[in-house]
Design a protein that fits this description.
Blueprint lengths: L2 H7 L7 H39 L7 H4 L9 E21 L2 E11 L6 E10 L16 E9 L20 E3 L4 H8 L3 E8 L18 H25 L3 H11 L3
Parallel strand pairs: 1-5, 3-6
Antiparallel strand pairs: 1-2, 1-4, 2-3, 4-6
Helix pairs in contact: 2-5
Length: 256
């Protein structure tokens, strides 16, 4: 075999500077996106497992147990309390089935403890006129409320609604945490809020979601990003070498 034939049949790099720079920038980006999705999937799986584990525990039935300091996230609770119907939090920007609305939160008093408990009664549809707030039916007397305990998870983006003190009740706010509830109500609160079940006294439209995106979807997104990274790598090798012609020559030399 001649030297020229040997060179023709050999694999050679034919680098294209612009394509290489593009690939060197995009490959780490695609891989990092895939890794981030896997991390998010793992975080969501931990939340789902936490929810399933604590939902199997016996319901919390006393204020003392509620204030014990144990991990009560997602745990069922059957609490007797008296609802404050004068001060109502209307939590803005809550969309349900594609329709804008609010979540309604109120303070309740439990016997034997000074801390209040924040309850989330669920969702109501918003009026097309932003100046009209929803009319909320009161909950009279001392009653048993049924739901599960929830503490807001870390993270998320919050718009500043500009509210520092409530001048008139009910108050429409853009976000709520237990720390902010203490500021708005000027009272101490229990470490969790109670999200009412649909069959509880005082419940509006509930149906709470544990996570907005299931862990399996994050894994699927990660696979897509990694597949794009592999595809880009293959295309980069093809565009910067004689790989295609080299493979064709190798195929032609195979015995029939």
């Amino acid at each position: 075999m001649t030297d020229s034939a040997q060179k023709t049949n050999s694999f050679k790099w034919q680098p294209n500077a612009k394509l290489l720079v593009f690939s060197l920038l995009m490959l780490p980006f695609l891989v990092s996106l895939g890794s981030w999705q896997l991390q998010r999937g793992d975080e969501k799986q931990q939340i789902v497992d936490h929810h399933a584990r604590n939902q199997q525990l016996p319901p919390v039935v006393s204020a003392e147990e509620l204030a014990s300091g144990d991990d009560q996230q997602y745990r069922l609770a059957w609490i007797r309390a008296k609802v404050d119907n004068q001060r109502i939090i209307i939590l803005d920007n809550k969309v349900k089935n594609g329709r804008p609305g609010y979540e309604i939160l109120q303070s309740v008093t439990l016997s034997g403890v000074k801390e209040k408990l924040l309850i989330n009664r669920g969702w109501v549809e918003a009026s097309l006129d932003r100046g009209i707030l929803p009319s909320i039916s009161p909950i009279e007397g001392e009653i048993q409320l049924r739901g599960y305990l929830y503490r807001a998870l870390k993270g998320g983006y919050r718009l500043d609604d500009g509210i520092r003190q409530v001048q008139d009740w009910p108050s429409r706010v853009g976000w709520i945490t237990l720390e902010r509830a203490e500021e708005l109500f000027n009272e101490p609160f229990m470490p969790y809020q109670l999200r009412l079940d649909q069959d509880s006294i005082g419940a509006l439209k509930t149906g709470w979601t544990t996570v907005a995106v299931q862990p399996e979807k994050h894994v699927g997104y990660a696979v897509q990003w990694f597949a794009m990274a592999i595809t880009l790598l293959i295309m980069t090798i093809i565009a910067n070498s004689n790989l295609v012609s080299w493979l064709k020559q190798r195929k032609n030399k195979l015995p029939e």
